[in-house]
């Protein structure tokens, strides 16, 4: 058993509580922007820190992140985004975009920065015949799925309805429902509308600018502020999906059965397994409240498969506490993970596993059972299938050979950031023998470096693109790709 008490030097660090004296707070300082220099004739609004609306536009899902830009452009249109980029360029200020504040910020957004809040840019246009949707930068997956499913179609959406579509797509985007069947969300993008560092609005496609199109899909916020994306949709109306919850005492048996099971399933079967400390909250079914459980999440979107028969070996491991796996409308897919939608403090780390062995299972269970600041969530998602294949038009996603994602999180409550950070670092170290060294771009936390997202070859390619399109690194408040010739 992994005993994380064995290395407890972290306990002597000064303790810091999230929400009291936020970790990763941006520096404070004199105002960098005056009202006179703010853009006029915006469709949206320009807000200084003292203005009404500033707290709402800078509010993050992850309460651990404190975003305090010198000015917020609450954009209502691509023209507003252009005005924001021109302001930042004129002042030599860094600029960032935020739709929901789900992602941890590797670099604080402080008073020298311009923030573009895209929350008001909410248009979704579905072309059912072409099976595409144009989605603006403020749209969240919940709204997009609700709209798209009206047409008998489905997108490659993420687990949580409150995550933003554009931030997800630019970070690759792992769909736990259709991903193994079709690949990453970034593999199915037709065009990207983006305001680049020169203030120009461009519609970037594989033909118009192949290199920028390569870099935008996986380059996160490094190459401009995206105002809309056009994505491909799939003719899926129902899923066989849900979660099977087992007691944590069966974790080793369940994970080992899962380890064998994933070798047998077709590409239409997407799945993950999570070791979870469920919160003791009334919203949960009584048998799960406050319990440690192991949950297998299932999504099979191929009606020609006997999905119930495929899932049978998992159900047979031991008696589940609750089993919600059944046929469901695609529109209900968020219920598979039931991710919390209300803002909360989260500390997280991520990686990718190249293999899942009995020893990996032992290590995962030991990490979940850790005695010092144990994680609330240890999750692995099954990759392979279409995730492993290069799309027709290649993009910056570099880790096609990984077998599973790895994600560790401590969520909510009075979080002792130093103790958790140290415990998570030890957990990752414990799992290192089975890790690829890379991290899923969309799960990257502030604990991971940009270099962990890309092979050296792809990083060099992105750095050279950055030199061309953002030589002064205006877009640097992110997992930054440094401009290099
Ligand atoms: C509960 C939860 C569930 C999740 N589930 C999944 C999942 O199933 N699969 C998965 O792949 N990921 C998942 N994620 C991770 C999520 O996809 C990433 O954190 C994503 O970057 C969030 O995008 P956002 O716009 O919601 O967040 P934001 O914090 O608003 O944006 C994140 C970053 O994206 C960039 N960005 C956002 N908008 C723009 C823009 N318009 N132009 C340029 N750059 C922009 C910026 O760099 C920004 O810092 C999950 C995260 C959470 C918290």
TrEMBL record:
- Keyword Oxidoreductase listed: yes
Q: From the UniProt record, which GO molecular function terms apply?
A: FAD binding; oxidoreductase activity
Q: Where is the composition biased (Basic and acidic residues)?
A: 1-15
Q: Which residues cross the membrane?
A: none
The answer to whether keyword Oxidoreductase applies is yes
The FAD-binding PCMH-type domain covers which part of the protein? 65-236
Which cofactors does this protein require?
A: FAD
Q: Which Gene3D superfamilies match?
A: 3.30.465.10, 3.40.462.20, Uridine Diphospho-n-acetylenolpyruvylglucosamine Reductase, domain 2 (3.30.43.10)
Q: Which UniProt keywords apply?
A: FAD, Flavoprotein, Oxidoreductase
- Annotated InterPro entries: BBE (IPR012951), FAD-bd_PCMH (IPR016166), FAD-bd_PCMH-like_sf (IPR036318), FAD-bd_PCMH_sub1 (IPR016167), FAD-bd_PCMH_sub2 (IPR016169), FAD-linked_Oxidoreductase (IPR050416), Oxid_FAD_bind_N (IPR006094), Oxy_OxRdtase_FAD_BS (IPR006093)
| Superkingdom of the source species | Bacteria
Q: Where is this region: Disordered?
A: 1-35
Q: Do you know which Pfam families this protein is assigned to?
A: BBE, FAD_binding_4
The entry sums up its family as follows:
Belongs to the oxygen-dependent FAD-linked oxidoreductase family.
Q: What is this protein called?
A: FAD/FMN-containing dehydrogenase
Q: Which organism is it from?
A: Nonomuraea jabiensis
């Amino acid at each position: 058993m992994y005993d994380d008490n064995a290395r407890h030097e972290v306990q002597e660090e000064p303790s810091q509580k999230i929400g009291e004296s936020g970790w990763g707070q941006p520096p404070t300082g004199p105002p960098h922007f005056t009202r006179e220099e703010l853009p006029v004739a915006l469709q949206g609004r320009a807000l200084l820190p003292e203005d009404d609306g500033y707290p709402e536009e800078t509010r993050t899902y992850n309460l651990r992140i404190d975003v305090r830009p010198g000015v917020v452009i609450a954009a209502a249109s691509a023209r507003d985004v252009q005005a924001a980029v021109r302001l930042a360029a004129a002042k030599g200020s860094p600029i960032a975009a935020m739709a929901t504040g789900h992602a941890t910020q590797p670099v604080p957004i402080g008073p020298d920065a311009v923030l573009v809040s895209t929350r008001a840019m909410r248009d979704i246009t579905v072309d059912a015949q072409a099976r595409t949707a144009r989605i603006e930068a403020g749209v969240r997956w919940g709204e997009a799925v609700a709209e798209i499913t009206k047409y008998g179609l489905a997108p490659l959406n993420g687990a949580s309805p409150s995550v933003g579509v554009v931030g997800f797509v630019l970070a690759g985007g792992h769909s736990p429902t259709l991903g193994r069947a079709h690949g990453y969300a970034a593999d199915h993008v037709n065009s990207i509308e983006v305001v680049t560092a020169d203030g120009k609005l461009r519609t970037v496609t594989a033909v118009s600018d192949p290199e920028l199109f390569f870099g935008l899909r996986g380059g996160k916020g490094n190459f401009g502020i995206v105002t809309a994306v056009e994505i491909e949709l799939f003719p899926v109306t129902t899923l066989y999906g849900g979660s099977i919850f087992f007691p944590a005492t069966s974790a080793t048996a369940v994970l080992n059965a899962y380890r064998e099971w994933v070798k047998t399933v077709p590409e239409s079967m997407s799945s993950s397994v999570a070791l979870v400390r469920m919160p003791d909250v009334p919203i949960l079914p009584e048998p799960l409240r406050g319990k440690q459980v192991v949950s297998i999440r299932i999504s099979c979107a191929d009606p020609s498969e006997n999905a119930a028969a495929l899932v049978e070996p998992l159900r047979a491991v031991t008696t589940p506490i609750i089993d919600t796996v059944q046929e469901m409308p695609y529109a209900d897919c968020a219920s598979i993970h039931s991710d919390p939608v209300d803002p909360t403090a989260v500390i997280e780390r991520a990686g990718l596993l190249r293999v899942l062995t009995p020893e990996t299972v032992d290590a995962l269970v030991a990490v979940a059972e850790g005695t010092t600041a144990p994680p609330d969530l240890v999750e692995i998602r099954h990759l392979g299938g279409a995730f492993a294949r290069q799309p027709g038009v290649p993009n910056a996603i570099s880790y096609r050979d990984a077998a599973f994602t790895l994600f560790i999180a401590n969520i909510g409550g009075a979080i002792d950031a130093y103790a958790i950070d140290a415990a998570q670092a030890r957990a990752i170290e414990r799992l290192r023998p089975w890790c690829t060294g890379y991290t899923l771009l969309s799960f990257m936390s502030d604990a991971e470096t940009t270099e962990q997202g890309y092979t050296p070859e792809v990083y060099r390619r992105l750095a050279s693109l950055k030199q061309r399109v953002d030589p002064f690194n205006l877009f640097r408040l992110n997992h930054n790709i440094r401009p290099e010739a």
